[in-house]
Amino acid sequence: MKLVIGCDHGALELKEAVKKVLAEFDDIQVEDMGTYTEASVDYPDIAEKVCGKITAGEADRGILLCGTGLGISIAANKVKGIRAALCHDVFSARMSREHNDANVLAMGGRVIGFGPAGEIVRTWVTTEFSHDERHQRRIDKMMALAEK
Ligand code: RB5
Question: DSSP assignment, residue 126?
Fold first, then answer.
């Protein structure tokens, strides 16, 4: 799996911790789209970069991090084709893959510790979409909302 990751200045340390977790997986190639310093940046710009890789077919999934995870997930969900899930617990992370086929995981660097975040990431990258007909139907309806 090709995975792109990005953060704003509110989640620099969390991004490094998440990258360490992702390095546990031989079958995941990670591309870090920044930010790389503590200088203030605007989270929609990071969301646009990461989501653009996914919608261009250059990456399979993404992880986006900001202070709360809120702004960057809201921004990501404005990008057509993106289903970003803000998850601060393992159950939500699993459900976001099984039921919602989330292609972006968002978390907040000022919200969650590295340990729980690591478990969320491990769960999210290893959980597949259920391919259940009712979940696919709901996803299709959800994505069609962008056309209305
Ligand atoms: C940046 O200070 C902060 O607003 C951002 O990281 C995020 O929490 C926004 O939702």
Answer: H
